Amino acid sequence: MKPRGRSEPNGALTPFGFLCDNQKDLDELLDCLHAQGVRESQLKERLEKRYQDITHSIHLARKQNLGLKSCDGNQELLNYLRSDLIEVATRLQKGGLGYIDVTPEYEARVYSLESLKDFGECVITLQAGVVKKFLQGFMAPKQKRRKHQGEDYVAKAEEIDEDKKMAEEAKVASATEKWKTAIREAQTFSRMHVLLGMLDACIKWDMSAENARCKVCRKKGEDDKLILCDECNKAFHLFCLRPALYEIPDGEWQCPACQPATARRSSRGRNYTEDSAEDEGGDGEEASDEPDAEEEEEEEEDYEVAGLRLRPRRAARGKQSVAVFSSRQGRHQRKKQSLHPARGPRQRAAPDNSADIDELVLQTKKTTRRQNLELQKCEEILSKLIKYRFSWPFREPVTTEEAEDYFEVISNPMDFQTMQSKCSCGNYRSVQEFLADMKQVFSNAERYNQNGSHVLSCLEKTEQCLIDMVHKHLPGHTYVRRKHKKLSAECQELEEQEGDSESEPLEHSRGRKRKK
């Protein structure tokens, strides 16, 4: 072992450690350390625990050849380029974003590529195999107008200068051609790798089927029950659609938001003025009812798309239009009943084909958020009622010590304390459930206590306070309870007699006493 220390001014060395540069010195040190020494035993224990690591470090430090590993840079880069090509093609195939079929033959052909020209043609073929709607950036195609967009949008689009349109199309085409030219003229594999990375950046990987998330419930999983729209590539669970699908349909499938407008919408948009003129025609109208009924049936059959029964959106009409065509609609209904007497009730229709799924999800979220806010208001109302001075008979459950025959009369007891526990546990799903328990509390008190009792007087005051708070905090809901007894007029003077009533409450043969 070689000592290591600090040099003193007189040339002496003050050691503070020793350096072991071989395994023999380390073994000698372990043999010299005494097992009963306070510090030596601890050092010996630690050295024995890390003996393998220390010997390995000694061998690495004694290596004479510390040079870099020899490798062929071009060959390494070539291998990385091949693996990246196969990886991009595989992701395109698994994600449903392209027409590339990655087979063992395709992989073998890629691994056999040697020249830059062959690599360039392979990358260009890979770009051509990507579905155009899944390209972005400078490779993104010009967006087409959807057929069901409004007339205002079409009018605005027509105002765009034709020269500007042609310039945009030429810009996209020229950018892609420049990229292809750069691939064909690439002189190094590094340049080819950069151009392949540009293609990877221009692919919408977030639209891949591997990242599919249901558009309705926003959840992943259950891939065997997940269906992709062939138009927008959005994913939907079969059981999240309305009506639900029991199996994946054959052929192409489009979600309700992407289904094109068909004959039914055009028929719904007919000029109703002409129909009203036909109604005034007289005898010839009854003969035309049957073709109209058949036309409606055909329109309904046209909307059976992949198991989805769609109901087109009906424009709002004024009272005058409704009055003019009520007789015609009645005749259509009678004719359809005579044509299909054994037909069962129609199933609930799915959202119309012009409504986006995002709107359905947003509406569901708004409804849930509104219900949560209303339930929070209910909890606040209950807290205020518990603090209300006349609510003492309803705060806690009735015990047999207070009323021996209470449970013989009341089969469904309820009180504010129980309701508060239900609020804390989240048992209430709607305001109606909360108000139903409130009605149960007051109905039980009204049923058990006799007319003129102090509890009934408190009931009227507390219930009126509840009605006021519901009107204030829950304007969309009303509280109405059928009263079975005529309450005593004593409640009118209850506020003035509050001090006396708290010290000496009224007692009746069947009434709850206030706890002192």
Automatic annotation (TrEMBL):
Its EC number is 2.7.10.2. It comes from the Eukaryota. It catalyses: L-tyrosyl-[protein] + ATP = O-phospho-L-tyrosyl-[protein] + ADP + H(+). The keyword Nucleotide-binding applies. One of its GO terms (biological process) is DNA damage response. Residues 329-346 have a biased composition (Basic residues). InterPro entries: BAZ1B, BAZ1B_Bromo, BAZ1B_PHD, Bromodomain, Bromodomain-like_sf, Bromodomain_CS, WHIM2_dom, Zinc_finger_PHD-type_CS. Residues 214-259 form the RING-type domain. Pfam families: Bromodomain, PHD, WSD. It is found in: Nucleus. Residues 264-355, 491-516 are annotated as: Disordered. Its cofactor is Mn(2+). Residues 386-456 form the Bromo domain. Residues 275-304, 492-504 have a biased composition (Acidic residues). Belongs to the WAL family. BAZ1B subfamily. This is Tyrosine-protein kinase BAZ1B. The lineage of its organism: Eukaryota, Metazoa, Chordata, Craniata, Vertebrata.
